[in-house]
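Lab notebook, bench 4. The sequencing result for the construct came back, and we need a structural model before the next group meeting so we can plan mutations. Quick request posted to the team channel:

Model the 3D structure of this chain.
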Amino acid sequence: MGSLGASGNGGLWGLGPFHDNIHRRRDKKRNKESNPSSSKNAAAGEFSTAASYRFPLKQAATAASLVLTGDTIAQLRQRWLKNKDSVRHSQDLKDIASSLLCEHDWMRALRMTSYGLLLYGPGSYAWYQYLDHCMPKQNAQNLVTKVVLNQIVLGPTVIGIIFAWNNLWQGKLSELPNKYKNDALPTLLTGFRFWIPVSILNFGLVPLQARVAFMSMSSIFWNFYLSSTMSR
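Done. Here's the predicted structure in token form:
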């Protein structure tokens, strides 16, 4: 689904909290405390900012690139398994590359990338902004609450949307109920098994400055799994 986790909050299912916004919020709070007379102007500025929506292009582009990377890996793996005997016996690197790339499903890649760009990136950005607004303090209680909410709210929502998006592109909306019935719950449970341990590692072992990179790399594996599930 910067990408996955940042600045002590971490993220599940894809893009996580965005530390730049958190730092800006903290700076504004410090400025208000040091200069109370400026609070009215700051409040007016915040209202104006809230009233004008800006598409989170950076976060959307990051999500799209990570989803595209995961889908590319998934497609390469599928073709490798399909053609592994012929590839193993080939001595020409060009033949191997041609065998793996010539059948690349660009429509599938576009389908997955558009999901990250138009839906997952902006949606998860808004979700984590909302969580940070409701629970700004960095403490254990808020951390656990965010993790739980990610699992029971964001996880099922992401799976429901990506299944619908995939079937809509393929013109198979009539098959969507069966897709939910057969694949939604296994995908959700796999997400629990994947993201909870990753988050524990992220918060417990990874230095703060490396959390965004760690969770971003982790999201590539999750996007690989999602892409493989979509193509069944």
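Confidence is low (pLDDT under 50) at residues 1-20, 46-50.
Will bring this to the meeting.
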